[in-house]
Amino acid sequence: MCDKNAAMDELFKHKLLTLRAPLAPKTFAEALIRESFFSSHSVRPETVKPRGFTEKQQVIESLERFAKEKTEESKEPVIRFDRGEIHLKADPVWDSVALPSDKTALLASLSLEKESLEILFRDKTPGKIRVMFVTENLRSWEEVKPELKGGMIDELLVGFPAKTAEFFERMILAMKLVPAEVMVYPIEDKAGTDLSSEVVKIALYLGAELVVTLGAKATQKILKSNDRLTVIHGQFFERKVEGAGSLQIVPLFHPSILETNLNMKKTAWADMQKIMKHLKKIP
To answer: Where exactly are the structural domains of the chain?
Structure first.
């Protein structure tokens, strides 16, 4: 009987891994090499293995998906089986946010320097933003000002050093996003003040389809969770906001990590493709 149970466990694990294994990106070379995402390296996708991948992680993700499907079917946060039941922990909820009446009121309620806000909100229209990227840090206006070049790169320079900003711009272009569809905002100001409530306010005001958190700090604050980024990256989460709807959130690794780590780039591209598919940027 023990041998039979062990065999069944192994079969179950194998099936879960098969079901959950990500499909190999069909346009990896075209999107990333031709569009200069990996412009400084020649990378063969079949030779790059994502760091942090484990069978345990795949099984856990599969069980989470199974639990979600079961609770959606039953409309209850509980999974029942022959000898007991499992109650699922409720997702955190954001407190109510006072939505501004117009863009002027919104800008007046935010903490960043006026010059930085003017760059970040340039040509941003409610209902047009597909993705709001949440960075981990903010650079001062005095630091950013000499590096401004015009175009989308200026928005990225507010939150990233010049080299990382250029790299992240290539990532955004590889995702087939244009400047009018993208909003960028930091999770902290220069003094380390938490700006997560401002992120939520902006995302709701602009009607961002997705909030993409970059790095562990931004992810934990927006999700209100301590889950490890290595486990939850590329997954879609919903966070309700009291009396104001909800946000769809997808965590990604920070571009500064991808910039110097070839092993992470294939993982990042797979996550980016999930976002592109959600936005109907690819079939």
So the answer is: 2-87, 103-278
